[in-house]
Records
---
Amino acid sequence: MPTLAQQVKHHAAELGFDDCRIAAATEAPHAAEFHQWLAEGKHGDMAWLARDPARRSDPRIVLPGCRSVITLAMNYFPGDTPPENPDPGYRIARYAWNDDYHDLIEKRLKDFDTRLITLGGTQKRYVDTGPVLERDFACAAGLGWNGKSTMQIHRRLGTWFFLAELLTTLELPADAPFGDHCGKCVRCIDACPTRAITAPRRLDARRCISYLTIEHKGPIPEEFREAIGDRLYGCDACLDACPWNRFAATSREASFHAREEIFRHRTRDFLALDDDSFRALFARSPIRRIKRPRFLRNVCIVLGNTGTPADLPALHRSAADPDPLISEHATWAIERIHARHPAP
Ligand code: SF4
Ligand code: SF4
């Protein structure tokens, strides 16, 4: 007869999770550091992180009677190269090459929850959006370790996986931690274009391109615009640099593989999107969540860094956009292109 923990892990594998490990439900080991990070304002515009930090630090406050945290990994690696995009090209963080993972993982977690109810458990399920310090519990459970980039590293999946967790009232034996395997490596710190990793495991989100191009709502500070380069949405630089990714295999979930329809667009083509065509192109994509003005802001940054005079007509139309977020960034891009290509 399989043990309760074996049954739980069997369900996880059946539901398509690539790893499942268990941590005891205690206060998160890095609760104090998290509170300090918030106090220093390093979470930028991500106000949701600062809401109710005590709940984030202790799963027993979130789910009374919580005994265990089931930590789960799902590989999303869509491969090394996206479908070719037309010159001058742009980069989108790999996790956003296709469908929003929240939808897929949430559905699997719901099924998982139903199965655990039949085993006598009461659960709360989370993928990113939840209140728990998920990386702390993943480390405690041995689901990899927290790398110097602050990203979770898994010995088989590298950095290309989503974390999810179920808080449960089931009493499950905790798995052993795997330990820190960064050693003397500092590749992620050296690779960061904006020096956002200020020390090992210290991220100033306000300098991070992922934050600036996704979470940050307003104008992108000028000091970071050039460093963003051709990154249209998110940044994989610290992940690409990690040697633990040498073991990464392509995800078996087709909905994480690149959506060619998106990558067929030239950078300037995106400027022609109105609200409706933006929503249609990015239906089910995580990119849809930042909405058209923020996305076009990012398009202008990329064109400012990579564009040519051929991009100027589209940028001039955007410079007249009624939304100041778009018009200001388009004007900046026009000036940058003129500076690179002075009129003869
Ligand atoms: S995502 Fe990019 S900008 Fe952010 S820490 Fe990593 S390398 Fe730096
Ligand atoms: S790049 Fe090196 S230091 Fe950074 S997370 Fe990976 S192993 Fe750790």
Note: Residues 77 and 150 are 18 Å apart (CA to CA).
---
Amino acid sequence: MSYHLASTDRPQAVAATEPSPAEFAFRSIVGQSRPLRDAIELAHKVAARRMTTVLLVGETGTGKELFARGIHYAGPTPGEPFVAVNCAAIPESLLESELFGHERGAFTDARGRKRGLLELAGAGTLFLDEVGELPPNLQPKLLRVLEERRVRRLGGVEEIEIGCRVIAGTNEPLEDAVADGRFRDDLFYRLNVFRLVLPPLRAREGDMEILAQHFLTQVAQEQGIEPKRIAPEAMAILRAHPWPGNVRELKNVIERAAILSEGDEIREEHIRVQDRRPLPPHVPDLPAAGAGEIHVLERGRSLAEIEREAIALTLRFTRGNRSAAARILGISRPTLLRKLRRYGIEAGIAAEERGP
Ligand SMILES: Nc1ncnc2c1ncn2[C@@H]1O[C@H](COP(=O)(O)OP(=O)(O)OP(=O)(O)O)[C@@H](O)[C@H]1O
Ligand SMILES: [Mg+2]
């Protein structure tokens, strides 16, 4: 089976990366804005304190994983593993044994002993991305590991010492998950020891231009050509865009523009940015009257029912494109997938995207 354990841009089965390529430390984080420099300075400080848990809070594409790697490689044990896990992307049944490991025979499929990622991270770093999606039954187990620095594999009796630092990432305010009862407050307080907020791209003055140039240079280097220039009209479009997908979105837009433009200049027609308006004024194919609206009945409806309907309607609007739906709904794609599973919406969506 192949699933997305890591939230890196390149899909990989298990992201237990080799130690220390310098490009992963803070120098690969591009930008000059005050909020970004402040975040890097804080990250530097906490990097030195190996056992301090860090909570990285930021919208999708703001560089949480980049910062997690930076903290790891700038820390005292860069030669130890950096392991990234996306809590929302792994089926609940697998996540437990991935994190904590299992002994032979712990459950039907457990043919051999398996070390968990907490163990495999050694004296390095475990990055738990989208930690707000950690299933409720695993939350007390993680809390116990963080407090006692020990883990028992599934079906095991032996207590194994855990030496890694845990960095957690979230793109929703974890306080909301606590308020909804989806996330234990004791675990929240335990993770929230050192909170590092990564500003969205639209709040980093001047960084968009610097990053756009940076990605253009990168593309040019790969192709062995001179970096292309960005025409003023094209730049105006980039400046006007709110960048809901942040740096990742900018990177994609620039790479695409560089491919489309044949000359040495990026022009208006090479820039394609997503329109963020949730519903355009006229949607010809939406089903008949009222179907695009969400109704709150007189007797009231649960938030879950309304959420289910909002998701279904948005998917209909995006013709089944889940990445687009996630963007419109303001949640990550893995979160959307989890909600689809929870609400059983999967069936009946005609056009499924072929995304990565
Ligand atoms: N300041 C930056 N300088 C250079 N590249 C950046 C910067 N911030 C982000 N990137 C690049 O943007 C992409 C997204 O970054 P990253 O995966 O770290 O974001 P994220 O916050 O973890 O996103 P998600 O919440 O979707 O997992 C990566 O390719 C990363 O290298
Ligand atoms: Mg990430």
Note: Residues 1-23, 277-290, 347-356 have pLDDT under 50 and may be disordered.
